[in-house]
Amino acid sequence: MAQLSVQDKLGILADAAKYDASCASSGTVKRNSAGGKGIGSTEGMGICHAYAPDGRCISLLKILLTNSCIFDCHYCINRKSSNVRRARFTAKEVVDLTLSFYRRNYIEGLFLSSGIIGSSDYTMEQIVEVARALREDHDFRGYIHLKTIPDADPALVEAAGRHADRVSINVELPTERGLKRLAPEKSQPRIEGAMGAMHRAIEDGGDARRRYRSAPRFAPAGQSTQMIVGADSATDGDIVLRASQLYGRFGLRRVYYSAFSPIPEASAVLPLQRPPLMREHRLYQSDWLMRFYGYRPDEVAEAADPATGMLPLDIDPKLAWALKFRDRFPVDVNRAPREMLLRVPGLGVKAVNAILSTRRWRQLRIADIARLTVSVNKVRPFLIAADWRPVMLSDQADLRRFVSPRAEQLELFAA
Question: Is Magnesium set as a keyword in this record (predicted)?
């Protein structure tokens, strides 16, 4: 490998990291360097922009330790047989870059992943060393997210959790069949075994913190994963069910979806075109329905086309489900329980909370609902208010035409 400057390496390895989607910085504990102790903070405002639950934008330095890899996964731009320019950071270089960027107020944390060099254990040692040096040698208190390697020694993966705010282990593909076909050197049992071990370690760390206030925190922002969408034949229904299993078995904070992107000199087993980005968006919406709206995975899957297993691209999954089960609607906003109000298309969690709070004091009218939603026309066919009953709309055979968003031609040079 030719000798490269740190700036050259940064250009190569920051670009190579763009395929990692799971770089949100939510859910961690608050730390700062007030009083002159340490360096960094997880509380500041914000190169990768992630958003905390309270809306704060946190900038993360998002890089790979190296884009060299001993694996030859068909879908990966950094696979062993790929003809790309290679680079590699030392652990010290990553530490120095992180501290340098922080002092210039460019970032608030680090997202570090890597290809596999030498062996899984050696690579994991280097990743852990970066986090250890930042925390112990420099008392860095900013956010750290580490991508861990399932095949590495469990003690190394556990060490990553002691230094990082969040850890993630990619399941790569939704089905074991797809993983065997496109990444034969990887094993679903090994991946799930590592995720299970991390889940138990996080639970043990949380239990220790409840018993002893002095116990060290262990991956306080939990663990996440990422799967590639569109590289294999998995349907949206398959992906939704797989995500639900991961949430249930491993207590994940997030499952991220990354639309497959064609790569140079691609293998013949890969599709020639990328899936629509809207498909990725619909899967995130489906994920939200399971996490915050009380939908079971089989209910979300019911919103998909029964023949293809794919979610509609022109309408969101919540609306698709409501149109498929019109016998559940309309619901009375002044009487319906919370779980049914959450199923009304166009009503979010905040709107439902406002409805429940307000109706204790007075009857809600359709004008009140209009102030809580972006499009009252989308809501009208599915609810009853004090002055509104959708007699004509609810009987429309082609109701989808009335509630679907209209396609608009965007102006290239609009102000």
Answer: no
Give the integer Cα–Cα distance in Å for 81 and 71.
9
Backbone dihedral region for residue 239 (phi beyond 0: left; psi -120 to 50: alpha; all else: beta): alpha
Distance CA(189)–CA(309), nearest Å, equals 26
Angstrom distance (rounded) from CA 359 to CA 338: 12
- Contacts with 132 (C-beta within 8 Å, 6 or more apart), sequence order: 159, 163
- Give, for 257, the enclosing helix (H) or strand (E): strand 254-259
**Residues listed for the chain:** 415
Structural domains of the chain, with CATH: 6-275 (3.20.20.70), 325-403 (no CATH)
**For the whole model, what pTM was predicted?**
0.85
* CB hemisphere CA count around 309 (13 angstroms): 10
Non-local CB neighbours of 287 within 8 Å, separated by 6+ positions: 240, 243, 255, 257
- Phi, psi dihedral angles at 52 (to 5 degrees): -80, 165
